[in-house]
Write a structure and sequence with these properties.
The complex is a heterodimer of chains A (415) and B (424).
Chain A lengths: L2 E6 L5 E6 L5 E8 L13 H8 L11 H8 L3 E6 L4 E8 L3 H13 L5 H20 L4 H6 L1 H5 L12 H6 L2 H11 L5 E7 L3 H12 L22 E5 L5 E9 L6 H13 L4 H8 L4 E11 L2 E10 L7 H17 L2 H17 L4 H14 L4 H12 L2 H13 L2 E7 L7
Helix pairs in contact in A: 1-4, 1-8, 3-9, 10-16, 13-15
Chain B lengths: L4 E7 L5 E8 L13 H8 L11 H7 L2 E7 L4 E8 L3 H13 L5 H18 L3 H14 L11 H5 L3 H13 L3 E7 L3 H12 L22 E6 L5 E10 L7 H13 L5 H9 L3 E10 L4 E10 L3 H18 L3 H20 L1 H13 L6 H11 L2 H8 L8 E6 L1 H11 L1 E4 L7
Parallel strand pairs in B: 1-5, 6-10, 6-11
Antiparallel strand pairs in B: 2-4, 2-5, 3-4, 7-9, 7-10, 8-9
Helix pairs in contact in B: 1-4, 1-7, 3-8, 9-12, 10-11, 12-13
Classes of the chains: A alpha+beta (415), B alpha/beta (424).
Chain lengths: 415, 424
C-alpha cells in the first residue's frame, strides 16, 4: 500500500517520503524555495546560474563528477529553475539512494565555487540564453512582452535572465545568494523509493541532519492580481501571427479542477471546442488552444492561436466571446460533464506509470498546490466535482483581468 | 500465439491500470515521398470515427475508462491503450473495432493538415531543427526517405483517398508485436487478449524495409546562411552500423564516451566544461534495422566556432584511432547495464524497448544477449570496430552567419550554400 510519510529535521528541512515497494528505483527531488521572481531585478538570471553551479563540484566531488557518478549507476539527474523554485532531481537504482542523498546534502553545504568556474558557467548560461531565447524568433518576442504583461511584478523577468543582467552578476553575488537561500529551512525533499521508510529516514538524518547552515527566507512574491496592460502588440520576423489572451485569477485550490476541466473542454483535448473550430474555420487558424498555469503567486488561464499572417486580429477574440456567451453552455451538459470528469480522473491515474511520474505528481500536490493530501484525495475530489462549480469558475474567469498579446507576423495585414 | 503475433507480458502492482502497446512495422520510411507527413496525419485521423459506432469514439473510450495514443516513428507505428483494471476486454475490443473499421472524414483531415502545417511552421523558426533537416537532406538527398523533408506542399498533397490507401497498408502489415503491462496475472490477461484478437483477421503482407544506402563519403559541408544569429548551429553525420550488426553494441558503448554520454562525453567536456562555448553539443547513435549513423549537434558561440569545429574534428580522429580508455569503457558499460533498472520501472518505456527489438528482428532473447555482450566487451573489441569507421567526418551542416562559417567550412571539404527554407 502506498503511504506518504512526512518529517522535519531540527534544521528546518522538510521531507516527504513515499514508500513504493513495487519499484527497483528511487526518485529524489530537492526543491529550494527560491526562484527568479525573488532575485534582484538587475541580477536577473542568478537563480538559474546557481542551478548550473550546483553541478560544478564540492570539496568532495570534482567538477563534472556529479552527473558522471549518477550516470554510472544507470541513473540520471537534471534541474530546472522557475519564477518561484529551483528543483534538482535524480533517478537512481534504490541500492544507491544513500549515494545521491549524500551528494545533495554535500552540495547544499559544501559547494566549491571558484571564480574560474563561475566565469565559465556564466558563459554557458549566456549560450543557453542565446540558444533557447535570443535565436528563437517566436520565443524571443514572447519573452520581451513579459514586461508589458506583468509590469513591475517580478514575473516580468524570465528565469533565464538576459545578456545584460547575466553580465551584471558578480562572483560575490553568487556566493551571497548561495549562502542566503540554499539552506535546509528553505528546502523541501520529496522522495519516492522502494527503500523502507525508517531506513531511509536514518540516512536522511545522517547526511542532512548535521547541516547547520542558516540563511534567509526569501521575501514572498506579490500576488499576480492583474496585468500591467490590457493590450500589447509586437512584430515578429516569421510568416505567422500569434495571438494570446491571458486571464489573471487568484491562487485558489477550488479553481484547480474546474479550470482543468474547462481547459480540456475548450482547448486542451483533441475533441475540444477550439480544435473543432479549426475544422470549421474559414479563415486561416492553424492552431488554437488553452493552457492553465497554477503557481503560488496566482493562476493564469491562457487562450492562444497561431494564424497565417493575414488575419483579422479580433477574429479569435470573437471566438472567445462566443465561448463564454453560447458555446460552453451549449456543450457542457450533464452527460458531457460526466465524460470529462471520467477522462480527467483516468488520465491522472494512468499517468502514474513509474516512480518518476509518481514523484512529479506528488511534487505538484505539495509544492504548487500546498498539500500532499491532494495525492490521495484528487480522484475523489474529481468524482465529487459539481457542474455548478465549473460554471461558477467560468463566471469568475470571464470577469477576471486579462491581457491580449498580438505578435504580428512579417506579412501581417488587416483584412 | 499465432505465428504472426507476439505478446510480451509484464506485471505491475500500481496503478490499477493495464498498459497495452501494439507495434506495427510500418512508419515514416514507407511514406510516399511527395506526401511526406502522411503517417502523422493518418495517426491524427485514426480512432476518431468508426463505421461500427454511430458516435465519435473518444467519449466511448471515456466511458470504458480508457484512453489511447498513437505515435509514428521512422520504422513503426505504436498504438498505446491505457485501461482501468476491470474493463480490459471491452476497451481492447473497442480499440480493435476502431482500428479495423475506421471512417475518415474530410473535415477532420483538413483540420489535422492545418495542425501539421502549424507545427511545421513553428519548427521552421527553430534554427536547430532547420539545421537538422538540412543535414538529412544533404546526406541522403531528396529521393531518400531520410533525406526528403516534410513540407507544406507535401502535407497539402495528402487527400482522403491517400489516407485510405496508407491505412490499408498499415492494417494489412504483418507481424504485429504486443506488449502488456498489467496488474492482473499473466494467464488471465493473455487469454483476454487472444480471445479478442481471434475476432479479427491479420493478413500476412510484406512491409516496406529501408535498405542500406551507399553514400559518397568524401568530406563535404553545407552552409545555411542566416543573418543576425549570435551562434552557429553545428550538425554533423558519420555513417555507422545498423542495429542488427554485431558492431552495433561495441560502437554504442564507445560512442557514449565520445559524444552520447552527456557530461561523461569528451565533446561536452571540452566545448562546454572547458571552454564555456555552448549549452550543449550532444551526439546520438541512431540505429535502424538496416541503416545506422552518428549524429552530433549543438549551437556554439560565434567567436568560438572555429575552435569548436577543430576540437570536434580532432576528438573524432583520436577516438577513432586510439579508442577509449579502460575506465571510460567501464563507465559506459555500467551506465547501460544499470539503466535497465530505470527503464523497467516505467512499463511504457520497457514495452517500447522490447517492441523496438521485435520490429528490428532481433532475437527473442535480445535483452539477455545485450547484457552479456556489454558485460564481456573489452578494449580490443572496440578497437576492431573503430577501424571500420570513416577516417574523417564526412558530412557537416553549419547554419548562421555566413562570413564566420565560410572560411572554416572551406577547410573541411567541398562546400555548398543553401537557403534557410530550401530543405526539399
Amino acid at each position: 500500500m502506498i503511504k506518504i510519510n512526512f518529517f522535519e529535521l531540527k534544521n528546518g528541512l522538510k521531507i516527504y517520503y513515499l514508500f513504493n515497494p513495487n519499484s527497483l528505483i528511487s526518485f529524489l527531488q530537492v526543491w529550494y524555495h527560491f526562484g527568479s521572481a525573488q532575485e534582484e531585478a538587475e541580477k536577473n538570471g542568478i537563480a538559474h546560474l546557481i542551478e548550473h553551479i550546483f553541478f560544478k563540484g564540492t570539496e568532495e566531488i570534482e567538477e563534472t563528477e556529479y552527473s558522471r557518478l549518477i550516470q554510472r549507476e544507470g541513473g540520471s539527474c537534471n534541474a530546472f529553475t522557475s519564477e518561484e523554485k529551483i528543483c534538482f532531481y535524480e533517478t537512481i537504482p534504490t541500492e544507491k539512494l544513500e549515494m545521491i542523498i549524500k551528494m545533495e546534502a554535500d552540495r547544499m553545504k559544501n559547494l566549491k565555487i571558484t571564480e574560474e568556474k563561475f566565469e565559465k558557467e556564466k558563459k554557458v548560461v549566456m549560450e543557453e540564453f542565446k540558444e533557447r531565447i535570443q535565436n528563437q524568433p517566436i520565443v524571443k518576442p514572447l519573452m520581451e512582452v513579459r514586461k508589458d504583461v506583468f509590469g513591475d511584478h517580478p514575473f516580468s523577468r524570465d528565469p533565464a535572465g538576459n545578456i545584460e543582467t547575466i553580465n551584471n552578476i558578480k562572483f560575490e553575488d553568487v556566493i551571497n545568494y548561495y549562502e542566503n537561500y540554499f539552506h535546509p529551512k528553505n528546502c523541501t525533499l520529496i522522495i519516492v523509493s522502494s527503500k523502507d521508510f525508517e531506513e531511509a529516514k536514518e540516512i536522511i538524518e545522517k547526511h542532512f541532519g548535521n547541516i547547520e547552515k542558516k540563511g534567509k527566507i526569501p521575501l514572498p512574491i506579490p500576488p499576480l492580481s492583474k496585468p500591467a496592460k490590457e493590450y500589447v502588440e509586437k512584430k515578429i520576423p516569421i510568416k505567422a501571427t500569434v495571438f494570446s489572451k491571458t486571464y489573471f485569477l487568484p491562487k485558489k485550490e477550488e479553481f484547480f479542477f474546474p479550470l482543468n476541466l474547462l481547459h480540456n473542454l475548450i482547448g486542451g483535448d483533441e475533441d475540444s471546442i477550439l480544435k473543432r473550430e479549426i475544422q470549421e474555420e474559414k479563415f486561416y487558424v492553424l492552431q488554437a488552444g488553452t493552457f492553465p498555469f497554477f503557481s503560488n503567486s496566482g493562476t493564469l488561464f491562457l487562450f492562444f492561436s497561431l494564424h497565417l499572417p493575414f488575419i483579422k486580429k479580433y477574429n479569435f477574440l470573437k471566438k472567445i466571446d462566443d465561448l463564454y456567451k453560447n458555446k460552453i453552455k451549449e456543450i457542457l451538459n450533464d452527460k458531457k460533464f460526466e465524460e470529462l470528469k471520467g477522462r480527467m480522473a483516468f488520465s491522472l491515474l494512468s499517468s502514474l506509470n513509474g516512480s518518476e511520474k509518481i514523484g512529479l505528481y506528488l511534487a505538484d500536490c505539495i509544492i504548487s498546490r500546498g498539500s500532499p493530501d491532494h495525492f490521495f484525495n484528487d480522484l475523489k475530489n474529481i468524482e465529487n466535482l459539481k457542474i455548478e462549480e465549473v460554471f461558477k469558475t467560468l463566471e469568475f474567469l470571464k470577469e477576471a483581468p486579462s491581457c491580449e498579446v498580438l505578435l504580428k507576423g512579417s506579412l501581417w495585414k488587416k483584412i | 500465439m499465432e505465428e504472426n503475433l507476439k505478446i510480451y507480458y509484464h506485471n505491475h502492482l500500481f496503478p490499477p491500470v493495464h498498459y497495452l502497446q501494439i507495434v506495427i512495422p510500418k512508419g515514416e520510411f514507407s511514406e510516399p515521398l511527395e506526401k511526406k507527413g502522411i503517417m502523422e496525419v493518418l495517426s491524427e485521423n485514426l480512432f476518431i470515427y468508426s463505421s461500427k459506432y454511430k458516435e465519435e469514439l473518444k467519449p466511448i473510450f471515456d466511458r470504458e475508462g480508457a484512453n489511447f495514443d498513437i505515435s509514428v516513428s521512422e520504422e513503426a507505428t505504436l498504438i498505446t491503450l491505457k485501461v482501468i483494471k476491470e474493463n480490459f476486454e471491452g476497451a481492447f475490443s473497442l480499440l480493435l473495432d476502431s482500428f479495423f473499421f475506421p471512417e475518415f472524414k474530410e473535415k477532420k483531415l483538413k483540420s489535422s493538415k492545418k495542425q501539421a502545417i502549424g507545427n511545421l511552421k513553428i519548427s521552421l523558426t527553430d534554427p536547430q531543427i532547420v539545421s537538422e533537416m538540412h543535414l538529412f537532406n544533404f546526406v541522403f538527398g531528396k529521393n531518400h526517405p531520410l533525406g526528403k523533408n516534410q513540407t507544406i506542399k507535401t502535407i497539402k498533397n495528402i487527400k482522403l483517398k491517400d489516407l485510405n490507401n496508407e491505412f490499408n497498408l498499415l492494417k494489412d502489415t504483418k507481424n504485429w508485436g504486443i506488449f502488456i503491462s498489467s496488474p492482473v496475472e499473466k494467464e488471465k490477461i493473455i487469454n483476454s487478449i487472444t480471445d479478442v484478437m481471434k475476432r479479427y483477421e491479420l493478413k500476412n503482407m510484406n512491409f516496406f524495409e529501408l535498405k542500406d544506402t551507399k553514400l559518397d563519403l568524401k568530406p563535404k559541408v553545407r552552409i545555411v546562411p542566416k543573418k543576425g544569429m549570435t551562434q552557429v548551429s553545428i550538425n554533423l553525420l558519420i555513417p555507422s552500423f545498423p542495429r542488427v550488426s554485431p558492431d552495433y553494441i561495441p560502437l554504442k558503448i564507445s560512442f557514449y564516451t565520445f559524444s552520447e554520454g552527456g557530461f561523461s562525453s569528451r565533446i561536452l567536456k571540452e566545448i562546454r566544461v572547458e571552454m564555456g562555448s555552448t549549452y550543449g553539443v550532444l551526439g546520438s547513435y541512431n540505429a535502424f534495422k538496416n541503416i545506422g549513423y552518428f549524429q552530433i549537434s549543438g549551437m556554439v558561440k560565434n567567436n568560438d566556432f572555429q575552435k569548436a569545429v577543430e576540437i570536434i574534428k580532432d576528438l573524432y580522429k583520436d577516438w577513432r584511432k586510439e579508442g577509449i580508455k579502460e575506465d571510460e569503457l567501464e563507465e559506459a558499460k555500467q551506465f547501460y547495464l544499470n539503466s535497465f533498472k530505470t527503464i523497467k520501472d516505467d512499463p511504457l518505456e520497457w514495452g517500447s524497448f522490447l517492441l523496438k527489438n521485435y520490429i528490428q528482428d532481433l532475437p527473442e532473447n535480445y535483452y539477455d544477449v545485450l547484457i552479456e555482450r556489454i558485460k564481456n566487451l573489452n578494449l580490443e573489441d572496440l578497437e576492431e570496430v573503430h577501424k571500420k569507421l570513416e577516417e574523417e567526418i564526412p558530412f557537416w551542416v553549419f547554419l548562421g552567419d555566413e562570413k564566420i562559417i565560410k572560411p572554416i567550412a572551406e577547410m573541411l571539404g567541398e562546400t555548398e550554400v543553401k537557403n534557410y527554407f530550401d530543405i526539399e
